[in-house]
Amino acid sequence: MKKNIYFSETQDGKDVKYKIVDIKSLVADNAMQDGKQRTFILIDDDPKFPFLATEVFKGKHVVGYMEPYAFENTITSRTFTGIPYVAGTNYSGCRSYHYMVDGSKHVYYWNLFESKKINAKREKYSQKKLLKKISEKFKDYPTVAEEVEKRGLTAEQIHEDPTILLELLDKSLQ
C-alpha cells in the first residue's frame, strides 16, 4: 500500500489497481480478520508518503489511526560462485499506529507484527529501552513516558493494545 492498492469488489473478483491518492475512503468487511467493517481514509499530510488508515482511538484531543501493511523480509544467499541471489521473500502482516493531536500532523508511534514470533523478540525490550522509545515517539508530551513508567507498563502490554498510549496522552492534555 505504498503508492497503489489492489482489490476487487467481491472475494472471487478480479483485482483492480488504484492509486492511493485517488482513494478518499474505502469501506472493507473483515479487513483485519475481526469480522468488523472498517473505513479506511486517505492520510496525505505528508505528500511523499500518503497512506490509508482506519481510526482506532478518538479522545477529546487525540485521534489514533492504524495502517495495515505487509512487511517484506527478503532472504538472500550466495551460490558457490559467490553470486548473490534471492532465495525467497516472505511477507508478514504488520500494523503501524499513528496519532494526531488537535488536528496536527500524524506521528508514527508503534508497529505491531501479526507474527507472534517477531513480536516475542520485540517484547523483550528492557524497561529502559521501552521508555526511551516512548520518550522519542511522544517527545512533545513527556507525561506519556512518565505515566508508562509510573504504571509499570511493559512492551507486551502495549502490544496487546497500542491505543493505551493514546489514552494516556489524551488524559494528559485535558
Short description:
By secondary structure, the chain is α+β, with helices and mostly antiparallel strands.
Description:
The protein has 5 helices and 8 strands, in the order E-E-E-E-E-E-E-E-H-H-H-H-H. The chain has 174 residues and is of the alpha+beta class. Helix 3 packs across helix 5 (164-172). 24% of the residues lie in helices and 40% in strands. Strand 5 (51-58) and strand 6 form a beta hairpin. The chain has helices at 116-122, 127-137, 143-151, 155-160, 164-172, and strands spanning 4-7, 16-19, 25-29, 37-43, 51-58, 62-78, 84-101, 107-113.
**Rg from alpha-carbon coordinates:** 19 Å
Low-confidence stretches: none
The SSE string, one letter per element, is: EEEEEEEEHHHHH
- The residue-averaged pLDDT reads 82
Write down how many β-strands occur, each being a DSSP E stretch of 2 or more residues: 8
Spatial arrangement of strands, main beta sheet: 3-4-5-6-7-8
Q: Strand-residue fraction? A: 35-45%
Note the gap between the termini. Answer: 35 Å
Class inferred from helices and paired strands: alpha+beta
The coarse overall form would be globular
Sheet of most strands:
6 strands, antiparallel
Percent helix, as a range, is: 10-25%
Number of helices: 5
